[in-house]
Write a structure and sequence with these properties.
single chain
Length: about 80
Amino acid sequence: MNKYLVKGLSLAITGIIAVYISYDLMEAENHWYKILMTVGVILFGYGFVLLVYRIFRKIDRKTLIDNRNKKQEEQNQEKE
Protein backbone atom coordinates (compact mmCIF):
# COMPACT_ATOMS: atom_id res chain seq x y z
CA MET A 1 0.00 0.00 0.00
CA ASN A 2 1.08 3.52 -0.71
CA LYS A 3 2.29 5.58 2.25
CA TYR A 4 -0.15 8.37 1.37
CA LEU A 5 -3.03 5.92 1.31
CA VAL A 6 -2.14 4.44 4.70
CA LYS A 7 -1.54 7.82 6.33
CA GLY A 8 -4.67 9.34 4.75
CA LEU A 9 -6.93 6.51 5.83
CA SER A 10 -5.53 6.41 9.35
CA LEU A 11 -5.89 10.18 9.81
CA ALA A 12 -9.40 10.21 8.35
CA ILE A 13 -10.54 7.33 10.57
CA THR A 14 -8.91 8.94 13.62
CA GLY A 15 -10.70 12.19 12.80
CA ILE A 16 -14.06 10.45 12.51
CA ILE A 17 -13.52 8.70 15.84
CA ALA A 18 -12.51 11.98 17.51
CA VAL A 19 -15.64 13.73 16.23
CA TYR A 20 -17.82 10.84 17.37
CA ILE A 21 -16.29 10.93 20.86
CA SER A 22 -16.71 14.71 20.98
CA TYR A 23 -20.46 14.29 20.32
CA ASP A 24 -20.65 11.96 23.31
CA LEU A 25 -18.79 14.51 25.41
CA MET A 26 -21.13 17.26 24.22
CA GLU A 27 -24.16 15.28 25.39
CA ALA A 28 -22.46 14.79 28.77
CA GLU A 29 -21.94 18.59 28.92
CA ASN A 30 -18.18 18.26 29.09
CA HIS A 31 -16.46 21.32 27.60
CA TRP A 32 -13.53 19.34 26.19
CA TYR A 33 -15.71 18.42 23.23
CA LYS A 34 -14.88 21.73 21.51
CA ILE A 35 -11.17 21.00 21.39
CA LEU A 36 -11.65 17.35 20.46
CA MET A 37 -14.10 18.20 17.68
CA THR A 38 -11.71 20.78 16.24
CA VAL A 39 -8.86 18.28 16.26
CA GLY A 40 -11.09 15.63 14.70
CA VAL A 41 -12.17 17.88 11.85
CA ILE A 42 -8.58 18.90 11.15
CA LEU A 43 -7.40 15.27 11.18
CA PHE A 44 -10.21 14.20 8.89
CA GLY A 45 -9.52 17.08 6.50
CA TYR A 46 -5.80 16.34 6.34
CA GLY A 47 -6.48 12.64 5.81
CA PHE A 48 -8.92 13.40 3.00
CA VAL A 49 -6.38 15.70 1.32
CA LEU A 50 -3.76 12.94 1.49
CA LEU A 51 -6.18 10.48 -0.10
CA VAL A 52 -6.91 12.89 -2.95
CA TYR A 53 -3.18 13.58 -3.33
CA ARG A 54 -2.58 9.84 -3.67
CA ILE A 55 -5.15 9.64 -6.47
CA PHE A 56 -3.53 12.55 -8.33
CA ARG A 57 -0.07 10.99 -7.95
CA LYS A 58 -1.33 7.70 -9.32
CA ILE A 59 -2.91 9.39 -12.35
CA ASP A 60 0.21 11.50 -12.93
CA ARG A 61 2.49 8.46 -12.71
CA LYS A 62 0.40 6.55 -15.21
CA THR A 63 0.43 9.52 -17.61
CA LEU A 64 4.22 9.88 -17.34
CA ILE A 65 4.76 6.18 -18.06
CA ASP A 66 2.44 6.35 -21.08
CA ASN A 67 4.25 9.43 -22.43
CA ARG A 68 7.66 7.78 -22.02
CA ASN A 69 6.47 4.67 -23.83
CA LYS A 70 5.10 6.76 -26.71
CA LYS A 71 8.36 8.70 -27.04
CA GLN A 72 10.36 5.50 -26.98
CA GLU A 73 8.15 3.96 -29.70
CA GLU A 74 8.57 7.10 -31.84
CA GLN A 75 12.35 6.95 -31.45
CA ASN A 76 12.38 3.27 -32.38
CA GLN A 77 10.32 3.98 -35.50
CA GLU A 78 12.66 6.83 -36.53
CA LYS A 79 15.69 4.52 -36.23
CA GLU A 80 14.11 1.94 -38.52
